[in-house]
Structure prediction request, 338 residues.
Amino acid sequence: MQNNKDNFTGKMFRRLWIPAMVSSFGWALSDMADAVVVGQKLGGVGLAAISLILPVYMINCVFAHGLGLGGSVKFSQLMGEGKEDEAKRCFGGIFWLAVILSLATALLGNVFMEGLLRILGTKAADGELYTATKGYLRILVSATPLFYMSNIFNYFLNNNESQKLGGLGSVTGNVIDISMNVVFVIFMNLGAPGAALATVVGQVVAISIYLPGFFKKTGSLKFSLPNLTDIKNAFAPLKAGLATMTVEEISMAILKMGFGGRTDGYIQITSIVTEDGTLELHMRDDATSFNPFDLSTNRASVGGDFDMDSMGVLVIKKRAREFFYRRYQGFNTLIIKI
Prediction:
């Protein structure tokens, strides 16, 4: 008698889903901790400072998650095809590209700190707001390599049968982040910079937990010397990762604001790679008339509201080559070129 029961998919889904949910829950709590603790201690000024630096935080996240997500998917694909040596080189290329981009960001951010603060919307005449924002931003920018490494290590471990280690590092790092927020901001009175410092300590702890996973004798994830060809090849997974994050950000905005609670709608997504290497994302949905690119992306001010969906759209608008929207025959149509 033939048995068509699928004994694989459910087990694999649960194996990957539980660590992913635990990690996501930890990230959400640590993000909330900054706002709650700083808000309680510094009020509107502290919250505004955190809001002002969000564009920098989001751009860092786009590249760190883009490298980690796109690179780890490519790594898994190569491993599944039995190309372990190519998979190792994929990780090496992603790692060294992340090192280069993050160090450049940290250096340039510190050199052009005053100009960056003006772009974000604050200047010395703003007093407390300027001081709090500058203190937070300097630590955030200086620690950019840590944020890149933490995210990339987590993604690759989760795609190399080390989900438990990845989940443990993520959760522990976030618990430390939350705890240090209370210590640095409330007890040591370090203000907004204390919240940034707590996040850095959490990242250091997470990385220290991840690292043993890269030194296993039987593991496929190994550090290697930089190779220019591998670094150049890492840009393709980065583009794929950025495309995935673009879809996530736009889809979340459509689900929350276009469908307005509807559960019977749909979103159709098509990707096209043109001859010049441009990746085109075509998205169509049957929500009410809604253009995500019309969301207000004004910078936050003291006491002002701040919408993370709008910030995600702002980052996409800055990084995309082109974007286009129209309402056609009852459907919303978006085209985004990356």
The radius of gyration is 21 Å. Confidence is low (pLDDT under 50) at residues 299-306.
